[in-house]
Amino acid sequence: MILSALLTSVGINLGLCLLFFTLYSILRKQPSNAKVYAPRSVAAKGAPTETNGFDFDRLLPTAGWVKRAWQPSEDQLLAATSLDAVVFMRIFIFSLKVFGFGGIIGVFVLLPINFLGTQLDVDFSDFPNKSLDSFSISNVDDGSNWLWVHFCAAYIFSAVVCYLLYYEYSYISSRRIAHFYSSKPQPNQFTVLVRGIPVLSGSSCSETVEKFFTEYYSSTYLSHLLVRRTSKLQRLTSDADKVYRTLARLKSEKDPQQRFKRDGLFGRKVDVLDHYGKKLDDLDDTVRLEQSSLAGKEVSAAFVSFKSRLAAAIAVHIQQGTNPTEWVTESAPEPQDVHWPFFSSSFIKRWVFKLVVVVACAALTILFLIPVAIVQGLANLAQLETWFPFLKSILSLTVVSQVITGYLPSLILQLFLSFVPPIMIVLSSMEGYVSFSQIQKGACTKMLWFTIWNIFFANVLSGTALYRVDILLEPKKIPGLLADAVPAQASFFIAYVVTSGWTSVSSELFRMTPLIFSMIKRLFSGKDSDEFEVPSISYHSEIPRILFFGVLGITYFFLAPLILPFLLVYCCMGYLIYRNQLLNVYAPKYETGGKFWPIVHNSTIFSLVLMHIIAIGLFGIKKLPLASSLMIPLPILTLLFNEYCRKRFLPIFKSYPVECLVRKDKEDQSDPSMDAFYDKLSTAYEDPVLMPIRHRRSTDDHNSPLLPAVV
Amino acid sequence: MILSALLTSVGINLGLCLLFFTLYSILRKQPSNAKVYAPRSVAAKGAPTETNGFDFDRLLPTAGWVKRAWQPSEDQLLAATSLDAVVFMRIFIFSLKVFGFGGIIGVFVLLPINFLGTQLDVDFSDFPNKSLDSFSISNVDDGSNWLWVHFCAAYIFSAVVCYLLYYEYSYISSRRIAHFYSSKPQPNQFTVLVRGIPVLSGSSCSETVEKFFTEYYSSTYLSHLLVRRTSKLQRLTSDADKVYRTLARLKSEKDPQQRFKRDGLFGRKVDVLDHYGKKLDDLDDTVRLEQSSLAGKEVSAAFVSFKSRLAAAIAVHIQQGTNPTEWVTESAPEPQDVHWPFFSSSFIKRWVFKLVVVVACAALTILFLIPVAIVQGLANLAQLETWFPFLKSILSLTVVSQVITGYLPSLILQLFLSFVPPIMIVLSSMEGYVSFSQIQKGACTKMLWFTIWNIFFANVLSGTALYRVDILLEPKKIPGLLADAVPAQASFFIAYVVTSGWTSVSSELFRMTPLIFSMIKRLFSGKDSDEFEVPSISYHSEIPRILFFGVLGITYFFLAPLILPFLLVYCCMGYLIYRNQLLNVYAPKYETGGKFWPIVHNSTIFSLVLMHIIAIGLFGIKKLPLASSLMIPLPILTLLFNEYCRKRFLPIFKSYPVECLVRKDKEDQSDPSMDAFYDKLSTAYEDPVLMPIRHRRSTDDHNSPLLPAVV
């Protein structure tokens, strides 16, 4: 790629971003779009009333939203959203710091050295047509002493990144502890999930749990709730709820004429309400029947609640029975975070599933590109002409054929890629996690490795890698191979940051898909339906995408520093836009207390070590074997640093220490509202589908906008 | 090696064993050897009185000891010794089962197949001169279908070994739990060791500990004892104790004439007692001075005792402070098991030391043979003649020179090898372990890898391996390399089992070194001194030696099954002899409750996987690629089995579950003697050198035979 081509691409994408921004700042002011651009305030205050008067201001693009997104302090953001959202924003702050520092060194020190090299032997005079490679390390002469500058830069940059990692880890840990201290008593703090209950013959599961915990936690045991297998019931209730909502909407229609018009297909007007009413009654009866029959379908798992946080922590941390595969305990998730359908209880089953998922995930990640390549091969011009002969005349046009050959493969890749996050969610839920947060966390890690493998390595080793998985059996050759292939892809990844990064983040602001859906809905139903769910951010697809840019930035820092300014722009935009979205669009669905951060930390450490390995190979290729050998301690030191961080910070993200637990428990002792809390606690983990129908619906009506359903 | 040579070697070693047995059965009846062969009963009942009358029976070799060693049931053994000793004996029982099963298949199925092969093309008629290789798998024809029998044998044998491993793990876990239930309240069950105490400025370490635990464990905290740095004091007190003992002996001499005779060097008889008395007073004064000055030398570590076992377990399992590197807790060892001198307290320091030890250990293990080879090279005949010219005439004798060239290298190797266990102990103690049991456990693992590398791999890859550590960077080639080299060494290892195994175990019975020491002592001092220590078994040097034979047996099971009968003989002898020694000679120094078993388990899993890797390579070499590929699932299944065992049993060996702890705590509540126990508990972890001098000596006099000092 030459410089002018890059500039063109930057220009086009900058234009696109500006277009999105302008459209956004206009569209968001239209009251009809409130549910798309400010669902949180709609859920809190109700939809803004549609003023019929024409307002010129509403058509002017303004940048007020930028200020409103920028202004709130981190504490205000925490109060408005969740600690997870704050941690999510810290990824951008951390990236800004890293790329800011790296950018200064890269652009002002490394770039000139690269540019003044003569290895690639390109013409000096024709600046705009200069290949981007002349800005990369490939242009430095073999064996040149200037490479020692790169060597020092790698050391300094690694040290700074490690310092920033340490600082950030320590900052987020302290926030996590502070957040715990400031939290009100919550059911999940007092509850553990027990699986693998060894039911004795002659006594029920419930009795066994009761007996065990009254015997061994006599002073702190409060109550328990058995988990039941409810997948069938879940389907029934969701059907019944749908009918119930339709009925409710029909009843509340202000203009009776309207509903006859819409439901006129049934003929008589009385029929409509009657029809739905009967259907609902039938369904409710079935649900009640199923609920009563379910009482027996226990899965030998239970939520056990205690009177204090410390007691719950004891139950989690110390092995319960003499057989470690029985009475397996873990911290309970928040009640609204529980993922009811997947409740595999047997230890062995979960273990086997975990292994299967690991294998499936690895296979999916490594072999993903093979089916994609095959489908892409099938969908070429000639094939299309055979399948759809009537398209022949259109396909013979040069423009159309060029568009198809140019865009069809990448369209197919994108299509396949969009299936991956849901697949990862399914795989994670098969592992036996019991909460959405754990499932999303598991999927987040899986997606990260998937992205790194299928975008980074697949591009770098372009094709051959798929058939060279066996290179892992010859680890000696890896640095050389990477050092050969990675710098060559520098210009591709710079273009990737500009096109994919900038556009994805600005389309995140614009919310293209929900906007179109909302428009279609209004077009067909004439009016927005009242029921809508506040979306929640899908950490499992967003975090890996952002972290991948981190991997790119760190890896290419000393290979092709030109990438860093573009990443800086990406991070700035991302910071503003995601802040805006978190404040206005996404409602927190759960609170893990920042448990996503360790993924960010590990990904950064991986990027550093990857950079070091490439550096080792590169200095070897560049005929500077001394630098290559002197590079070897750097990854070792980095891994040791990581090991230290694991010991110093990771435990804080796993559970809370005695100090915190006891202090909070003591605070509660003087709190008169605790009795009411204990009462609520004993039913907090009731499976929603098992609640009496009326009761569930009344709570549903209250909660649904704040606590949206499944992912 | 040819068959007749092997038979000769077997004959010689069998003769040696018989000689040792005969000598033992005579010598052990001599009352003067009681301290060598039955120190436990001497410590319990005092030395048997020397009868002057001549008794002919005492000179007859009898086998009564075999019966006495065989008879006690496992429960009796447990009562007489410790659970660790029982677990130690289980190694032999387990090995007997494995080699018994393997021996039947190997000798009756595999051996005939190997023998009937024609690959090595040796003469049939000359049976005694047949090479041992014709009994190994090398003799089976390439590509022969008979190899599928070996293939099946490998699968069946692995399955049986895994079943036995599972059975044994489960049996020992249940014994461990049963032993805990039957144990009396012990200080270590109620106590935790806290390190990394963050001392606030303005308050002492003791106050900080007191404040923390009274606040967070208000209902269960009992007391604490600070740890102090006492290495200087330790030297002083041991000097003082020596003088004290000499003085005590002098005073108690029945015949005053004797002591003048012996101590006559000093001239006047009054002087002797006076001299020692003064010296003791001086030393005691210094000790007292040092003790009082030590009060300030705290190491920010403390033993904290609780009122219940559960509270101690809570303190161990749940992170204490918000900083995981502060208030680091671990279960306290038994009071007599504490290793006082090494008390590094800082988290970072211990972590760095651990890393250093890992590196040092790996370096020692991998590079051990290099200095040995160099010294062996220096100690050749020519070199000796240059160094010691006066030996020239002796060295020129053929016999002498042959002995020297034949035995000197192996003598030097043995000399170097004998230094290794103490080095491993030092390395382990540097890791920051606080008890002898942990140190020995650490050293045991290190010794195991050391033995496997330096005896197995160094012999198999003979020399080249030292310079081929980089083979680890090309894992693909490993199976082929091993399959090529391992079967070739079969006859060497058969001879090794016979010479090293049989002899080592029978000389263990004979206790050569202690016997000689005791004889020399009696010869020079005329009479045994009263002070002696009951030895304790060094698990860290015995277990790896036995496990190494396990590695040999499992690895060679299908390569050269001829090794198995010899191993069976070794195990039978070992079972009897170690039972005898545990009952009569070695006193338990600590009780880990069978924590050594996981090492045995892991070593067996390693052997199985090693066998599988060799099999994969071997079937490849033998031109049976299908068998080679079908072998690949076996190591994977074995490792999965191991993973399952880690989940199912390992937690039981780490700590006791709530169920056990609470049940024992409840038993204690009705026990009236608990108050007295709590009183004792608060001083149980007093550093012995810090006790008032008189008090220490009186307890010393009681305890020393049962609780011998440092390893």
TrEMBL record, chains A, B:
Q: Per the record's keyword annotation, is Transmembrane helix included, yes or no?
A: yes
Q: How does it sit in the membrane?
A: Multi-pass membrane protein
Q: Which InterPro entries match?
A: Csc1-like (IPR045122), CSC1/OSCA1-like_7TM (IPR003864), CSC1/OSCA1-like_cyt (IPR027815), CSC1/OSCA1-like_N (IPR032880)
Query: Which Gene Ontology cellular component terms are annotated?
Result: plasma membrane
Coiled-coil positions are none
UniProtKB keywords? Calcium, Ion channel, Ion transport, Membrane, Transmembrane, Transmembrane helix, Transport
Domain called CSC1/OSCA1-like N-terminal transmembrane: residue spans: 5-168
Pfam families noted in UniProt: PHM7_cyt, RSN1_7TM, RSN1_TM
CSC1/OSCA1-like cytosolic domain: residues covered:
189-341
- Residues forming the CSC1/OSCA1-like 7TM region domain are 354-619
Protein transport among keywords: no
**Where primarily located?**
membrane
State its location(s). Membrane
What Gene Ontology terms describe what this protein does at the molecular function level? calcium-activated cation channel activity
Which residue spans traverse the membrane? Answer: 6-27, 98-117, 146-166, 351-375, 448-469, 546-578, 599-621
Looking up PANTHER family in the UniProt record yields: CSC1-LIKE PROTEIN HYP1, PROBABLE MEMBRANE PROTEIN DUF221-RELATED
Q: Which family does it belong to?
A: Belongs to the CSC1 (TC 1.A.17) family.
| Name of the featured protein | Putative calcium-dependent channel, 7TM region phosphate
